[in-house]
Amino acid sequence: MFSLKHSLPASNGQHPQSLSRLKVHGQQMGKARPSGIALSVWEKFTPQKRLDRQMYHYGNFSQNFLWGVSSSAYQIEGGYNQDGKGQSVWDVVSNNPGSGIPEDVNGNVACDSYNRLDEDLYMLQALKVKSYRFSLSWSRIFPNGRRESLNQKGVDYYNRLINGLLARKITPMVTIYHWDLPQDLQDIGGWQNVEMINIFNDYCDFCFATFGDRVKFWMTMNDPQGLAWLGYGTGRIPPKITEPGTAPYQVAHNLIKAHATAYHTYDKYRASQGGMVSIALNAEWVEPKDINVPRDLVAADRAMQFNLGWFAHPIFKNGDYPEAMKAQVLVKSELQGLSQSRLPSFTEEEKNLIKGTADMFCANHYTTRLVTHILDQPTTPIGFTRAVSFGMRRLLNWIKEEYGNPDIYITENSVATPREWAFDEIDRVFLHKTYIDEALKAYELDGVKVKGYATYLMDSFQYLYGYLFGFGLHHVDFNNPNRPRTPKFSAHFYYNVMRDNGFPLPEDEKMIYGEFKKDFIWSNGKGLSIWDKFTHTPGKISEHDTGDVACNSYNKMEDDIAALKKVKVSHYRFSISWPRILPDGTTKYINQAGLNYYKKLLDSLIAANIEPQVTLYHWDLPQALQDVGGWENETIIERFKEYADVLFENLGPKVKLWITFNEPFVITVLGHNIIKSHAEAWHVYNDKYRASQGGLVSITVNSDWAEPRNPYKQEDYEAARNVVEFYLGWWAHPIFNGDYSPLVKKSVLDQSLFTPEEIKRINGTYDYFGLNHYCSVLAFPVDFGTTQHFEADSDRTWLETGSVWLRMTPFGLRRLLKFIKDEYRNPPIIITENGVSENGPVDLNDVHRKYYYEKYINQVLKAYLLDDVNIIGYTAWSLLDNLEWGVGYTERFGLFYVNRTDPDLPRTPKASVSYYSSIISCNGFPDPASGPQECWNPTPTIADP
């Protein structure tokens, strides 16, 4: 294994001169499109929408899928001069103070696996893996690299390891050579010496004869591309030769022939031993920077051929190098005035020897690169082993198409995490969740014959990076002479994946069929004033994205009503503009024109058989009140009470559902005055208007649901509870339970406690629970000196949206509803906001929004039917693509697209309109097994494909 994923040879860069030469030579690289048969992989997957690319797939691998872990000799064994072992090139280089390895460390002890074999076997047994991939140390078996120097103690060590694995029903997967060439062989020229072919073959022959009665899975060598390029091209690893123009090609030539010779040597053992032989190749995926630029596609194809095809093409196809590679090196060789290509040629006899010399395809995969055809811009990695999980599925499909659908074993896959993270390395968990799932997609959806998967067993010596990073499922304390091994979070996760043989569909993801209560509230919402001033301040939001016109609903009331009727909602949630009613925030002057507008809107809604759901305050404080301190000035409690009184008196006969505040947490962290303002408004309605008007009044709070980031840590469970109790409970606890929760008091409100009289006044000031909810988070604690706080993260498997803060997490809504039921004595709940955004180019076929509403509303139905939550209404946010506060119009939540390039601001329904309206018509989800449902007949919109 090797954590530094190497760049491709420089000869894969694009040059205008080479294109003309290639046309002369009639080679494929001068054409507009690559001729490789795997071109279909880019054409199929690269144009995928984000939803399709990220959609998680639940399913299982075959029952005989080979789940495993891996290691390599020099990285874990230690015992570098013990029991007769000879020196390898890594022993020599890493013990040189000028090696360039951070902290001047080496692999002399590493994980000390040579002396701690029982501990390794215990780890493997506890993990319950089916396979263990390890490599043999050439110089431990043959100290000088040749058979006459046989070291029986080295052979005994590997016999104990193999026998120990078999006793535990673990399949040994043996790599014969993993870069640790005996130094004595390097002294005669190493892999630049053609004699190495026979020397290596003799070593392999010994291994087959000695261990082959028990080993049925062989890899002759690991990542020969990396050895050729980094060892003989850039000189970054031993033998540190820097001859990039010629040496890598010479070395690769010998490595390929050495592999092929050893493969055929196994033929004499095949009948009696029944094993398989292959080679482990580094296999990165390469994406064209722009799929619509043919030359970028050519560059991507060429990069794959130079990287993976360099060794795979001769072995798995025709015994020769890829045409793209031969053509490119030939042209550059001619430009350098050479009489022949720097890439050696195979004879026909050698081609016949090489082709077909693999019984399965073994791929080490870490990351994806982005390539463009532009001069001097070769392939570039998307980060240092950065997780680009979709590359796994595409790579596996490419191997299937390019090499005739072989059996594929993923023999390495992991990610580097800093050693300081030790056990709680969430990045590795995310990597396994995403990369293994992409392999599962390739297996179940694409028919790729994926047969096995292996990741790192434990942290180890990482070559040029020493011990700075960990790649393993187990932490090794390299400062402790006993080298204790401790399972990480990722070990527990991987254990469960292996136990489940993939990702079975969890209960959270299963659909439930049924209906809501008959009078269920189906609503749409739409959302300046302090915002008038804010949106005219340079640099606050996107240029020109002010609220002056927004959707112009003030003048386009009829269009909005028509849109609501198309959706078939029973209710419509909107907010009143405080400064439109009371321009200076006080009752000194009531703007009758403003009141008349809202009366007209209410009448129009009622005439359309749509009940209004009215928010008194949605963040648009009159500027005059902000000028005297806003919500920090206690006098605002009386101002809000007076404002509410005006609305209840003038609009109350037409309104049965009121919301005092929307998401008060967003307004200020000084919630004391807001909570008291809400309570006073509720009492005004209760004392003066309830008897005659018969409406309901409450507050709506916003809250994410939180899960522990690491489910094996109690601290993370506590952090998750704190997230919900803090954000939801800050406002709900006083109103529903009478006072701030102990957590909130301890955290921020020691100086702002309610008096007993205020508690009595606030407690019970609700008629229902208003909830805005969009997504969930992963919570974990963070220490700041003497105090501990909590922070939130997102799971990378959660689907992205048009807002960086919003990932689709349907399960969280049901859990949050159940929390409210249990914490606040099962109040009636109205979901007052729930929706999803998009950004970028407008696409009226908003499949992600249809998916979001299906999954989230179904979770609401589960809460109603299975958890007995008193849920009475649901509001989709939003009706139109609104001004979304600080991000302007760049994030669009609407069911209807508003074309702002047209002065008339027309509303165009998206595909989600017909889908949401069908859910409303059915009042839930009819069981498809019961046959066609008349209600489930979406009215086509122009957005439907």
Which structural traits does this protein have?
eight-stranded parallel β-barrel; alpha/beta; disordered N terminus; TIM Barrel; 945 residues; 39% helix
In the CATH hierarchy, the third-tier topology of the largest domain is known as TIM Barrel
Strand content is: 15-25%
Task: Please list the strands of the largest sheet in the order they lie side by side.
Answer: 2-3-4-5-6-8-11-13
Low-confidence stretches: 1-33, 375-384, 528-549
| Termini separation | 48 Å
Cα-atom radius of gyration:
34 Å
Give the helix level as a range of percent. Answer: 25-40%
CATH superfamily placement of the largest domain? Glycosidases
- What number is the mean pLDDT? 90
Shape estimate? elongated
CATH class of the largest domain: Alpha Beta
Number of domains: 2
| SS-based class | alpha/beta
- DSSP helical segment count: 35
EC number: 3.2.1.21
Family: Belongs to the glycosyl hydrolase 1 family.
Subunit structure: Homodimer.
GO molecular function: hydrolase activity, hydrolyzing O-glycosyl compounds
